[in-house]
Every structure is written in structure tokens, then in C-alpha cells.
């Protein structure tokens, strides 16, 4: 390409759908792994083995951040609450479903996603919103499967 304008013209002529959440995906992809490492360093992560022991406890709620299609394709952890990542900000701030659930019940929120990146970012957002007990499953549902965690299809 000889210019930015030429590149834009070529891209526009492809008639591709408008990508969802590019403002979130691009920065996240640029730091793949870095967010999880920092969240773990802060003590806001549990291993899949630890998550197995937390599952079903009355003081813990597992929160699945994946899209419906991911859940249908790969299965879900029994008893987990579905709160898709795109709705995270509304859910973790005061008045939001997860914030109020944690406040009213004292339950510890344990986020998970496919590989742990979205859930690590969710933990940071939850911590910033005052949910001090929030954590995530390091490595996501992928790690859960490797730890032979049961899934519902």
C-alpha cells in the first residue's frame, strides 16, 4: 500500500462486518499473559484445582464471562452464573448484579472465561469497583478441563 487512504479503501471494499469490542480486544491481545501474571502476583487468582474445591460452596459463586456460543460449544461449570464479559462494567459497579450479589450475600466471586484473559481483566475491574474478594480461575475453562473439572453440555 502506498498510503493510509489506499489501505482504508481496500479494507472498506472487503465489506467485512464491524468487529465487536475492538477497543477491548486489541489492547488485551497486545498484553496476552501479562494481565494474568499481574493478577496472580496480587493474589487474585486460583488454580483450576483450587477452583474445583471451591465449586459448590455456599460462600462462592462462579461467574462465566464467555459468550453463549462458547458455553454451548465447550460446556459450563455446573451452578455457575452467566454474566457475559461485554456487560462486565454494568455488573460489577454499585447497583450491578454481581456487585449487589456480593454485597447482599458476602459471596466470593470467582470469574472464569476460556483461557483466563477476560477473567483476569474482570478481576481488576471488580477490584476497582470495590469487590475485594473477587478472583479468577487462572487459565480459564481450559485449565478446568485439564484438571478434569466436570462440565455440563
Could you characterize the architecture of this molecule?
This protein is α/β, with parallel strands linked by helices. The protein has a single domain (32-146), classed as 3-Layer(aba) Sandwich (Oxidized Rhodanese, domain 1), CATH 3.40.250.10. Helices cover 48% and strands 11% of the residues. The protein contains nine helices and five strands; from the N terminus they run H-H-H-E-H-E-H-E-H-H-E-H-E-H. Strands 1-5-4-2-3 form a five-stranded parallel sheet. Helix 5 links the parallel strand 2 (60-64) and strand 3. The longest helix is centred in the last third of the chain and has 12 residues, at 117-128. The model has no long low-confidence stretch (mean pLDDT 90).
- In DSSP terms, counting alpha (H) and pi (I) runs of 4 or more, how many helices? 9
For the secondary structure, the number of strands is 5
Topology pattern, helix = H, strand = E: HHHEHEHEHHEHEH
Net shape:
globular
**CATH-defined architecture:** 3-Layer(aba) Sandwich
Q: Terminal Cα separation, in Å?
A: 47 Å
Total count of domains = 1
| Class by SSE composition | alpha/beta
Indicate the CATH topology: Oxidized Rhodanese, domain 1
Mean pLDDT: 90
CATH superfamily (homologous) name? Rhodanese-like domain
How is this structure best summarized?
This protein has helices at 4-13, 22-30, 34-41, 48-54, 68-74, 88-92, 97-105, 117-128, 140-146; strands at residues 45-46, 60-64, 81-82, 108-112, 135-137. The chain is of the alpha/beta class. Helix 8 links the parallel strand 4 and strand 5.
Amino acid at each position: 500500500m502506498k498510503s493510509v487512504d489506499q489501505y482504508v479503501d481496500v479494507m472498506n471494499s472487503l465489506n467485512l462486518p464491524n468487529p465487536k469490542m475492538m477497543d477491548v480486544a486489541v489492547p488485551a491481545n497486545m498484553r496476552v499473559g501479562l494481565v494474568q501474571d499481574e493478577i496472580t502476583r496480587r493474589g487474585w487468582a486460583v488454580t483450576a484445582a483450587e477452583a474445583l474445591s471451591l465449586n459448590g460452596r455456599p460462600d462462592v459463586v462462579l461467574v462465566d464471562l464467555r459468550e453463549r456460543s462458547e458455553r454451548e460449544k465447550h460446556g459450563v461449570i455446573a451452578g455457575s452464573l452467566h454474566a457475559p464479559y461485554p456487560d462486565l462494567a454494568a455488573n460489577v459497579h454499585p447497583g450491578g448484579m454481581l456487585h449487589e450479589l456480593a454485597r447482599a450475600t458476602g459471596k466470593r466471586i470467582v470469574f472464569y472465561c476460556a483461557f483466563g484473559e477476560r477473567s483476569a481483566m474482570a478481576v481488576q475491574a471488580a477490584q476497582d469497583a470495590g469487590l475485594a474478594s473477587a478472583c479468577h480461575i487462572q487459565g480459564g475453562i481450559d485449565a478446568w478441563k485439564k484438571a478434569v473439572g466436570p462440565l455440563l453440555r
